[in-house]
Amino acid sequence: MTVSGVQPGPGLWKVSHGAHTLWVLGTLSPLPKRMEWRSQEVEQAIAQSQELLLPPTLSLDTGRGMFRSLFLIPALLKARKNPDGQTLQEVLPADQYARWSTLKARYIGSDRGVEQWRPIFAATELYMAAMKRSGLTMDNVVRGEVEKLAKRQKLKITDVTSTAKLDDPKAAIKEFQRTGLQDQTCFVRTLEVIDREIDAMREQANAWAVGDVEVLRNSPQTSQYAACQAAISESAIARKFGIGNLRKQSLDLWLQKADAALSTNVSTVGLLPIGLVLGRDNLMEDLKARGYTVEAPGEY
Q1: Which helix (H) or strand (E) holds 249?
Q2: Domain of 44, in residue numbers
Q3: Would you give the DSSP letter of residue 234?
Q4: What does the alpha-carbon distance between residue 73 and residue 187 come to, in Å, rounded to a whole number?
Q5: DSSP state, 78?
Q6: Is 65 helix (H, G, I), strand (E, B) or coil?
């Protein structure tokens, strides 16, 4: 079961240097579908702040538009399907395909089109269907509400986006269409999350909703996104087109923007995925290394 109704979410992490403070809200996805988020602490922080620092994101400039997800890259380059018309049954080991077929029947049904997709995209489709059936939502309701509050208070809103530009989109399309991705690790990890860890994801979602930071700190990491992102960003084709280093660039850019905000504003509010607040090699440790005082909720 997942919690419902109005919930406050976790408290804010306080990053300070003298009289200057950055209040960081760690966000989580997925969250309980029937939860309504409202945090008086966040509202008060926004009311006294001068700037909202958005989370680090990645984008690709194809010359025809900007796309803010690496997962869209093969799709927008008409490369969602496996090369040479292969099916999942043809590209996957038999045991992986058998596991996929069982979970697909449970969450997607008889749709045959997805059988033509590359493993990373088939796994993503399955994941979205499983979340919907499990009382969880991938909707980014917290960020949307925070931005709405910031606009109402007329805060400066700082986007933190690292962008790669495709100088020759036609060449990229052709190469992506004929190139395989090393995405079986992503595929297997996604199936594991769906098959074995949905209960843990509900526990995390509930802990976030009620603001239980200790559960969030100690609960196992269930996300498959690192493996799936690596399947694209670390591929030879991604490196060739300058996409491979985008994630690190985006994290470094967020730290630079945080430095600027802390030197300029008396108070700033920032958003970060909870994994970048509590996970391994998190940005809170990077901020400490830069000389800032970092205090978790309940420590100040």
Answers
A1: helix 246-264
A2: 5-295
A3: T
A4: 17
A5: T
A6: coil
Give residue 288's Cα distance to chain centre. Answer: 23
CA Rg, the chain, in Å? 20
Say if residues 119 and 183 touch (Cβ distance below 8 Å).
yes
pLDDT in tens, 132-148: 899 999 888 999 999 99
DSSP designation for 220:
P
**pLDDT tens, position by position, 17-61:** 999 999 999 999 999 999 999 999 999 999 999 999 999 987 777
* pLDDT per position as a tens digit, 74-115: 555 456 788 888 999 999 999 999 999 999 999 999 888 899
List Cα–Cα distances, 36 to 20, 43, 166, 249, 297, in angstroms.
Answer: 31, 15, 40, 33, 21
What pLDDT was estimated at residue 221? Answer: 57
Is 241 domain-assigned?
Answer: yes
Per-residue tokens: 8:
């406050």
Between CA 122 and CA 150 the distance in angstroms is 37
Residue 246 within any structural domain of the chain: yes
Nearest 5°: the CA angle 200, 126, 276 is 50
Taking the mean position of all CA atoms in its chain, how far away is CA 12? 19
Let me know if residue 300 belongs to a domain. no
Query: Domain for residue 27, yes or no?
Result: yes
The torsion angles phi and psi of 297, rounded to 5 degrees, stand at: -55, 135
Question: What is the DSSP code string of 132-160?
Answer: HHTTEE---HHHHHHHHHHHHTT-EEEEE
Kindly tell me the burial class for residue 169, based on how many C-beta atoms sit within 10 Å of its own C-beta (0-12, 13-18, 19 or more): middle
Q: How many domains does the chain have?
A: 1
